[in-house]
Amino acid sequence: MAIIALVVGPVLSLAVTVAREAQGLYRTLALSSQSQGGWSVWFAALVERPLEWLARSTGMPVPSLQAALMFRLQEAADMALGRIGGLFGNVTSTLLEAIITFLTLYSFFRGAKHLRELAAYWVPLPSRRVEELLDVASEAIRANVYGTLVMAVVQGLWSASASPSWVCLRRGCGA
């Protein structure tokens, strides 16, 4: 149970902190935009100069640039909200699965000797053979856990090395 508390506690604390910070940022931006006439007026005033400069530099009309910017921002916001929702959904399901796993392992470890005795009694094999089979199963489970951990590390390293930020750092993108 202590392990569950060690995992769930920081994750919930992080989620609450992120939510509070997002609310604070939203309130600050909302107050700032209200003093200037609302979100659309505030945003238009914020990007007016850069869009005019970009229009002069590219020869494109300002309304076209503004429409393209709004479209891209809407796409980015939709993607960010989808990922944030997916993140919290994944965290929730992972924590639930971890709790079930820890509770199951706790009950198995607490009653392991009794379970072995029951298996030796109910399985129609000599008790020495049942003990051998249980030892082999125990070794297979340990090997599976270690293999899973090794593969998780390998996949994590592989995905980190394949991400665009690492590629840009290696090749000097944007420099």
How many domains in all? 2
**Helix and strand run:** HHHHHH
Helical run tally: 6
What is the 3D form? elongated
Roughly how many Å apart are the termini?
50 Å
- For the report, how would you describe the main beta sheet? none
Short description:
By secondary structure, the protein is mainly α.
Q: Would you mind describing this structure in some detail?
A:
The chain is mainly α and 175 residues long. The protein folds into 2 domains: 2-110; 124-175. It is 90% helix and 0% strand. The protein has 6 helices and no strands. Helix 1 (2-35) packs across helix 2. The longest helix is centred in the middle third of the chain and has 49 residues, at 62-110. The protein is elongated. The two termini are 50 Å apart. The relative contact order is 0.04.
